[in-house]
Design brief:
alpha+beta, 10 helices, 6 strands, about 45% helix
């Protein structure tokens, strides 16, 4: 399962539900429409929901605790870590994730929500710290940088050909280009975004981040021009996700 997409959907759907913009039935339907399983809470150390329980039954506990927003936080060694401090026993699960969600009360963290590849969710306590994004790059600027970096990287991959590891050569380079150009609707995202036009580039950026998650140090890959290009692509994808999340209330 694409855990980055599932975690984003969780953040968007819960934030909309807690804000009264998404009804209970629509909360679950969001995941079904995306052909993803509805998250199942297997462990809740913060809000006291009786596990296992579905996301719909866990949501009232978050509301009772005053949670008013669930934001997305990307996880990768090369990206800034925007996850509040957690206990040692939860760090490994977070490190294995490509993204987590942070439940907040008036922009102060209360818990970290971690999804695994089977949509099982663990809710763990975290340090209570205020959060405010400092990113100022606009979505159009971030999207343009991502398109340009993907095109440049694809050119390098095709030029180097056999010198490129097969796992990198076989990534969905042309699909990413098409996704950012064809204007196709992304139903699982458009209905939840305040700016639905962001869905196309956001979906491509999420797919890129998920694909790059196993590559712990893209810049170190050889030849050097390949490593540098991959590093630019991943950071550009992260910038898109950050900008779109910020402008749509979950980042």
């Amino acid at each position: 399962m694409d855990t980055a997409l599932a975690t984003l959907l969780t953040s968007l759907a819960l934030t909309a539900h807690l804000g009264g913009r998404l009804g209970p039935d629509a909360l679950a339907q969001t995941f079904l429409d995306a052909e993803l399983p509805v998250p199942l809470v297997l462990e809740d150390e913060v809000f006291g929901t009786e596990a296992p329980t579905g996301l719909l039954l866990a949501a009232p506990a978050l509301r009772a605790a005053g949670v008013d927003r669930v934001r997305l936080a990307l996880v990768h060694p090369t990206l800034p870590l925007r996850v509040p401090r957690v206990e040692k026993n939860a760090r490994r699960a977070i490190a294995r994730s490509s993204a987590v969600a942070v439940a907040e009360v008036r922009h102060e963290s209360r818990a970290v929500l971690v999804l695994d590849g089977e949509a099982n969710m663990r809710i763990v306590p975290c340090a209570r710290v205020p959060y405010a994004t400092v990113d100022t790059v606009s979505v159009p600027e971030a999207a343009r940088a991502l398109r340009e970096s993907v095109m440049a990287a694809l050119s390098i991959v095709e030029t180097l050909d056999a010198q490129v590891p097969e796992s990198i050569r076989n990534l969905q380079w042309r699909d990413w280009q098409a996704d950012m150009s064809d204007g196709a609707a992304r139903g699982e995202l458009t209905g939840l975004l305040a700016s639905p036009e962001h869905a196309i580039v956001l979906h491509a950026a999420l797919d890129i981040h998920q694909a790059f998650s196993p590559v712990l140090a893209p810049a170190s890959l050889q030849p050097p021009e390949l490593g540098a290009a991959l590093d630019r692509v991943h950071k550009a994808a992260a910038a898109v996700i950050t900008a779109v999340s910020r402008d749509n209330g979950v980042g």
